[in-house]
Amino acid sequence: MLSIVVGIGGGFSAVIIKNSVWFIDGLLDNFIPEKIHTYFNFIFPIFGLSLTVLVIKYVVKRPVRHGIPNVLYSLSQRNGKIRRHNMFSSIITSSLTVGFGGSVGLEGPTVATGAAIGSNLAILFHLEYKQIMLMLGCASAAAMAAIFKAPITAIVFAVEVIMIDLTSFSLIPLLVSSITAVITSYFFLGQDVLYPFKFQATFTHGDLPWYILLGVVTGLVSAYFSKIYRLISKWFDGMSSEWKRLLIGGVLLGVIVFLFPPLFGEGYNPINSCLQGHMGYLYDNSLFDFMRGNIYSVFVFIILLILVKIFATSITFGAGGVGGIFAPTLFMGVHTGMLFALFLNTTGIHVVNENTFALIAMAGLIAGVLHAPLTGIFLIAELTGGYKMFVPLMIVASVSYLTVRLFVKNSVYTYQLAQRKELFTHDKNKAVLSMMKVNKLIETDFKPVNADASLGDLVKIIEVSHRNIFPVVDNENHMRGMLKMDDVRHLIFRPDKYEKVKVKDLMYMPEFYVSSNDSMQEVADKFHSCGRYNLAVIDEGKYVGFISRARVFSAYQKMLRHFSHD
Fold it and tell me: Which of 69, 154, 233, 307 is deepest in the core (most CB within 10 A)?
């Protein structure tokens, strides 16, 4: 039942966000004369980014994180709990960003909105973690299904990107939410994001080398996408003021969109025009209209669009805009495929169908940029009904993924989480460890002993302790070292040593210890490295307690059973 509600919520998220952007587009087209529209391309992005930053700062008053990375972060670090404001904040901010020309997509914010609805419904009904995780998967699948009207792809996306286990427990809710979202979208959205296309060619053995080469090319373009995205993100992160980021980013984006109007907004109109072979969109509202019809200018403009698109997308994010990278990925994919096909046909090296190569290249970019080859394969196959081209789709997506992995280990969705070691993965061992917290496993029933205490004082503490490890601290509870029962066993029956020997003469500082802020993966690695059964927990030099291998293992087994239970 909840999966139906989540599906409706995800469907309406897509409907509201899409219609909001179309409404803004309509206003701009109706109120700005076509003759001067080109010059306003510089102003609109700055205005939209400014509105977005102001809404976040003074209305939402909380950070609005990028859609899908935020969902992954919530799964791995917040037990699937997403703040309530995400049920509306992404709708408002992404509509302003994209509607006024921000060069990002709406899929991420739609998924974030749907996931927030699913998460808060799960919390409302006091569902357990595994059920919350499933609700987030259902919501994410619903959002993708509503946008592209591709329910199978949506389920694959939830499994491959959101990392929901596909089991008998999860399959039916994912199906129900996806179908519900598609029906909702058909009723209230109507227009397809991508026009329905059919593959105009069939797979032949003679094209095989060119599909392999296309896979390599899309993999290299994906690596370029990821590298530039990270470099620009770091550059903006180094700026101390959000207003400085807004000013610099807004001006840069305005200049880029002014010079290259196809980079205005999501980019689905250029994608559809490219697939139809109508290349006039390259020059529409452009200063370079006089070059229209020149085949060589088409090559130059497509190359420039591919190179500059990721700059426009990254700058939009860096300046404070809200959006996603799914649409930019499709944009770069379709132009990469079209450029590749035009080159082969124009030079006479080999005759290929340009529409087919453009479509298949989109799957290659999804596989490379998002590290989601199955999502790319099923999206293009489902949108085109082109299961007869399944083999080329599989070849290009696989080769692209393998190529990009040579240069980039994490997708743009998971890069920052991986850097912070907060990444939730399909590796169940790591996934379970990521859900365990050090501060929940700390044992505090150890008897501390002062470093200046005598052996006699230590013997008295031993008499009342049921542990064989003793943390040594100073008067301010700073950890000075520790003692094991085996280290003093030969002395405790020597009363003549009680006043002569001090604890500080017997203690040692452990080579390995942990902090309560460490991840469980770090704790597990330290247990593996040192081979000990107990590790001291020290925060800012102060003794907190101990964490034992036995307790970690017990908690791990319990969490694994809960995590795996169907």
Answer: 154
Q: Helices 34-55 and 2-31, interaxial angle, to 10°?
A: 140
CATH code, 205-421: 1.10.3080.10
Domain 432-564: homologous superfamily in CATH: CBS-domain (3.10.580.10)
pLDDT band at residue 305, thresholds of 50, 70 and 90? very high
> Residue 557 in 3-state DSSP?
helix
pLDDT, residue 220, reads: 98
Whole-number pLDDT of residue 9: 87
Burial 193-217 (b: 16+ CB within 10 A, else e): bbeebebebebeeebeebbeebbeb
CB 275 within 8 A of CB 358: yes
Beta bridge partners of 535: 547
Distance CA 158, CA 282 (A): 35
Q: Is 352 helix (H, G, I), strand (E, B) or coil?
A: coil
What residue ranges of the chain are covered by domains with CATH 1.10.3080.10?
2-188, 205-421
User: What is the dotted CATH code of the domain comprising 2-188?
Assistant: 1.10.3080.10
Query: Which residues, other chains included, contact 525 with Cβ-Cβ below 8 Å and sequence gap of 6+?
Result: none
